[in-house]
Amino acid sequence: SQMAFKDAVEASSIANLLVAAFANKDYTLAGNLLEMDLFHESYRSPLVAEFQRVRQLAHSMGIEGTFLSGAGPTIMTILQVHQAQEFYKACQDDQMLSTNCQIYQLQ
């Protein structure tokens, strides 16, 4: 599949800004940009059944930053440390997500 030049420029701009957001430790901006991916998410997210549910759950808690890690099936969500336990519990309470939810704190 081919991407139109205009779309490729936009996708690259988002990716470049994402790198800058991480470099500046602006994780709120990084989370928003991760959800704006134009390169692969629209193609791969339908292959990961839980993806949209995890993103919806995160959004319901005011958390932006759920994305597929590479080609999937790993789903990652960037959140604040104080949100981690509540998000984990919400995933555990959701029948669709309860079987394999893990939380890792990155420094």
Q: What amount of the residues lies in strands?
A: 5-15%
What structural category do the secondary elements indicate?
mainly alpha
Report the order of strands and helices: HHHHEEH
Percent helix range: 40-55%
Number of helices: 5
Total number of strands = 2
Radius of gyration: 14 Å
Average pLDDT score: 89
What is the overall silhouette? globular
Low-pLDDT parts are none
Rounded to the nearest angstrom, the distance between the terminal CA atoms is 37 Å
**What is the makeup of the main sheet?**
2 strands, antiparallel
Strand order of the largest sheet: 1-2
Task: Record the SSE blueprint.
Elements: H1 5-23, H2 27-34, H3 41-44, H4 51-60, E1 66-68, E2 75-77, H5 81-93
Antiparallel strand pairs: 1-2
Notes on the protein architecture:
With 107 residues, this protein is mainly α. Helix content is 50%, strand content 6%. The protein contains five helices and two strands, in the order ααααββα. Strands 1-2 form a two-stranded antiparallel sheet. It is globular and about 45 Å long.
